[in-house]
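User: I'm putting together a teaching handout on how multi-component assemblies are represented. Below are the sequence lines for each component of a complex, exactly as they appear in our records. Could you produce the 3D structure of the whole assembly as structure tokens, so the students can see both representations side by side? Please keep the chain order the same as the input.
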Amino acid sequence: AQKVTQAQTEISVVEKEDVTLDCVYETRDTTYYLFWYKQPPSGELVFLIRRNSFDEQNEISGRYSWNFQKSTSSFNFTITASQVVDSAVYFCALSHNFGNEKLTFGTGTRLTIIP
Amino acid sequence: GAGVSQSPSNKVTEKGKDVELRCDPISGHTALYWYRQSLGQGLEFLIYFQGNSAPDKSGLPSDRFSAERTGGSVSTLTIQRTQQEDSAVYLCASTVEGGLGNTIYFGEGSWLTVV
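Assistant: Of course. Below is the structure of the complete assembly, with chains in the same order as your input.
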């Protein structure tokens, strides 16, 4: 069975601070994919990143960076110099490629950036 | 359209009535998914379509829930004899083709309230 744990239910930081959102996953698959989605108040899930299990290189996209470590089954997400527009619920998700990419989501982390 | 389109965006219905939720996936996307997001809970998978067939219906919570897809495009999720516990956001998603680790794109969801 697959499982994704986002232990941080809510985080509040002051604008311009850095913040890291944790994601720990469990799977028996050797090939799998990890995702992060952002859900702003509008409700739409916005795709942020997709990483396959064979690529452990960290990735940076602007103020966003991701740290994938298979040894600890973690896929953490860091926002540098946070902005008010970053306020949202962030979901980590796991899928396998056994035919349908059904996503297993974590329960989400609500991030509030205080101006 | 450019993104996944869902209608209605909001629906209030009386307990016991049937409701239909519509999803129009991104043009050319063969795989389509329905998820449910209940208040205070994460996202749970309901059903997956590849083309017009549904190889995975494992997430449908009861036989009151059904879904169909026609023409490899639009999908309808039907909830019969709605109950208050059906109140949730129903999210539709699509991807180019299932089973290949492709990114899944979500719509803004249909907010269902059963009173």
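A couple of points students might notice: The first strand of chain A starts at residue 3 and ends at 5. Chain A has a mean pLDDT of 91.
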